[in-house]
Specification:
The protein has 300 residues and is mainly α. It is 76% helix and 0% strand.
């Protein structure tokens, strides 16, 4: 699903290597829903394996980057553990949605947390929205209404998938809000390790409660999901995002639904009509405007 928060107040001058990392990270994340579809486990179970298989690599990366995995205070651990549970609920909702709707819709609505965070920031600051923020909200509502209406025309199942992906975006907001303070004191790899430790059992429990197949016959899609989404995608973005302002990050984010649409067409025969494309363009514009309005954030 979507990415760590980005960008220092004065981003270091980006090089071609940073641009390549930014784009490659978004490509890797965009292909995650394809792996979820190809996995022969249930969708929630694939989320469990995404976290569980990544744990040894995350521990190794934290160690190599001198990010200790111990010494976390009780309050910090509770916050990170709660964030891990919310991230698990995010993945569970998103993966269920991926199985029920088009890949392009899943990528767009799964990234809806940017808009929710923008609205939350305005409420917390007790201020009125700026012009760009009003435009983002209007574009998001209009585009979402078009896409949800089109999904309802196709099948009630695809509408349910869209709603699960929107729910995932909501869970991701609370995950970010919980983990944001801890990121000031702990490295990204260490936090991702601990949140994965907390989230994996939740995903396993949900998968078992839903009666999903948990043990795979073919490990390839799950290993691709783990490497692409949890290690390569997140890792490249952690490396690259602090070099770019929010607008560039938002524009790079648009590669995800575009790639997902191509993957859905190539692998599953999904097609988009003109009205679908217009709805996606409106939501994508809203996401860029939301990222532009986020202001400076410090990467972990």
């Amino acid at each position: 699903m979507s990415t760590p928060r980005a960008a220092a107040a004065e981003p270091p001058h980006p090089t071609a290597r940073h641009f390549a990392a930014l784009l490659a990270g978004n490509v890797a994340l965009a292909l995650g829903p394809w792996s979820v579809r190809l996995a022969d486990t249930g969708p929630v179970a694939s989320g469990f394996w995404r976290l569980a298989l990544a744990l040894p690599l995350l521990a190794l990366l934290a160690n190599r980057n001198r990010q200790p995995l111990t010494g976390m205070g009780r309050a910090a651990w509770i916050a990170v553990a709660a964030a891990g549970v919310l991230f698990a609920l995010d993945l569970a909702s998103w993966h269920i949605g991926i199985a029920r709707t088009r890949l392009g819709n899943a990528s767009l609505f799964g990234n809806s947390g940017s808009l929710i965070l923008m609205a939350w920031g305005m409420i917390a600051a007790h201020r009125r929205p700026r012009a760009a923020e009003v435009l983002a909200i209007v574009a998001a509502l209009a585009g979402s209404a078009i896409l949800l209406g089109r999904s309802l025309e196709i099948d009630h199942k695809t509408l349910a998938g869209d709603l699960f992906c929107i729910l995932a975006g909501l869970f991701y907001v609370f995950y970010i809000l919980l983990i944001q303070r801890a990121r000031a004191s702990f490295g990204s790899w260490a936090l991702l390790f601990h949140s994965s430790v907390a989230g994996a059992p939740v995903l396993l429990g949900i998968a078992l409660a839903l009666g999903e197949q948990v043990w795979p016959h073919h490990w390839g899609p799950l290993i691709a999901l783990m490497l692409g989404s949890q290690i390569v995608g997140q890792g490249l973005l952690v490396y690259a995002l602090r070099h770019f302002p929010p607008l560039v990050i938002g524009l790079a984010l648009l590669t995800q639904p575009a790639i997902s649409v191509v993957a859905g067409w190539f692998a599953f025969g999904e097609t988009l009509g003109l009205l679908d494309g217009f709805g996606m363009a409106l939501v994508a514009t809203a996401l860029v405007l939301a990222r532009l309005g986020e202001g400076p954030k410090k990467a972990g």
